[in-house]
Each structure stands twice: as C-alpha cells, then as structure tokens.
C-alpha cells in the first residue's frame, strides 16, 4: 500500500502518459480516480504514498460540483502531510485550495506549444537550494496547453515562470505542509508527442487562439525539446517520491 500513487484524472479515459508510466517503472502501484465520472475521492489517505492531480478542460473557477469537491479534498490532502503534485488544472486547484487565485490572461492569450520557462531569479538569489531540491534541472522549454494561470497562495514560493504567465511552478511551505513535496505546475510534463497529436486532432481550432503556436511549431518542438523533458520528468518523479 505504501507505494500506491493516486492519480486524479478529468477525462475518464485510459491513458498512457509519461508520468504514470514512469511511476510504474519506478516500482509504484497506481490507482486512477475520475470524479467527473462519479469516482469518489478516497478518505483513507494512509493507503496512498502520494497524489497527482492532472489537467482537464475545466477552469478551476467553474462552478462544477466535482471541482468543488476536489478543491476541498486537496486542502485536506495537503494538511495530511502527504506529497501532492498538481499538473495544469491540478496546479490551479492546489493554488485555489490554499487561498490563491486562478485567472485568465489580461489579453486573453493562451500558451499552446513549447514555451521558454525560466526559474525565479528572486528565489535563486534568496534560497539557492530550494529550486534544485524541488524541481532539479528544469528544461528551458516545456509543453503547455492552457489559458488560465494561478497566483500563489500564502506561504508558497514561485519556482519558475514564462513571459505570459509569471507563475509556472510553485512549492507550498508552512505549518502542516510536507516540506518541498507539495508542488503545482502549469506546464504538462506528462504529455508525450502521441498524446499531443490526439489533442491537436481533436481541438484544431485551439491553435487559432492568440499566443498559440502552429502545429508545425509544436511538432518541431517535440523533436527538439521533448527528449530533455522526458529525462527531467523521470528524475523529478524519483526525487519527489524519494
């Protein structure tokens, strides 16, 4: 039981993403849960080593019953001093659960494709060990697909940002929070080229949004940047669960 990782999904369909495959390769059991399809989030936190909440089509501010339940559940999970990783919507829900804000870009811009992400210079200067302890050597270009961003909850440290969204990764700190193990990400380390192809085929109109890259740019981005993301994601997960 101690190696079981809870994976909270918002699509309700089988997936072979990079993160879940890496967890299995590391020797962990995984259990999927999809609240939007009626799955109940567990109350027995001791049965799980950690939780990862994935992205989704929803906005964290949408008045949807399953998101309200998730937000409350995430706050309780964090207070139980268990590791938590939020990816895109999962990161936004973490910020909201702990008192932060989720917002749309002021010029209605979206990040769809590979964008440069830089670590926080302020954090690097004030606490040089924290960034590496949390994320390791983060690749410079990361795959994104979102129109919302998050403002940090109280006590959180910004780890990295992009030109359009200054908070791309944060770690929560403070009383009742497991040190350096409660992390929200805006980018998508779990998305492989195969998953991105499905998204692009399903939602081609998304690339018409302001700020989005072209399909050719995205495909070239996977060729150029994804090998580094793949290496980093596996190292990060091993360290996060270590």
Automatic annotation (TrEMBL):
Family matches, as CDD domains: GATase1_1
InterPro entries tied to this protein: ChyE-like (IPR044992), Class_I_gatase-like (IPR029062), GATASE (IPR017926)
TM annotation in the entry: none
Domain Glutamine amidotransferase intervals: 74-193
Gene3D superfamilies, sorted: 3.40.50.880
PROSITE patterns on file: GATASE_TYPE_1 (PS51273)
A Pfam family reported for this protein in Swiss-Prot or TrEMBL: GATase
Molecular function in Gene Ontology: hydrolase activity
Keywords from the UniProt entry: Hydrolase
Name the record gives this protein: Gamma-glutamyl-gamma-aminobutyrate hydrolase family protein
């Amino acid at each position: 039981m101690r190696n079981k990782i809870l994976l909270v999904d918002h699509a309700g369909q089988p997936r072979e993403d990079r993160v879940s495959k890496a967890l299995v390769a590391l020797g962990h059991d995984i259990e999927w849960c999809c609240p939007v399809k009626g799955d109940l989030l567990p109350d027995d936190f001791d049965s799980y080593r950690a939780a990862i909440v994935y992205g989704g089509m929803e906005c964290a501010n949408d008045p949807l019953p399953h998101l309200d339940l998730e937000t409350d559940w995430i706050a309780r999970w964090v207070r139980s001093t268990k590791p938590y990783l939020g990816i895109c919507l999962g990161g936004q829900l973490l910020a909201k659960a702990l008192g932060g804000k989720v917002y749309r870009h002021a010029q209605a811009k979206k990040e769809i494709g590979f964008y440069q992400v830089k670590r926080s210079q302020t954090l690097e200067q004030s606490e040089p060990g924290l960034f590496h302890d949390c994320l390791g050597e983060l690749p410079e270009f990361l795959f994104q697909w979102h129109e919302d961003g998050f403002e940090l909850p109280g006590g959180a440290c910004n780890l990295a940002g992009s030109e359009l969204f200054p908070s791309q990764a944060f770690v929560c700190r403070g009383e009742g929070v497991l040190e350096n193990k409660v992390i929200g990400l805006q980018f998508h380390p779990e998305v492989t080229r195969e998953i991105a192809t499905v998204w692009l085929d399903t939602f081609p109109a998304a690339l018409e949004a302001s700020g989005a890259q072209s399909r050719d740019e995205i495909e070239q981005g996977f060729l150029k940047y994804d090998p580094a993301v793949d290496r980093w994601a596996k190292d990060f997960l091993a360290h996060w669960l270590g």
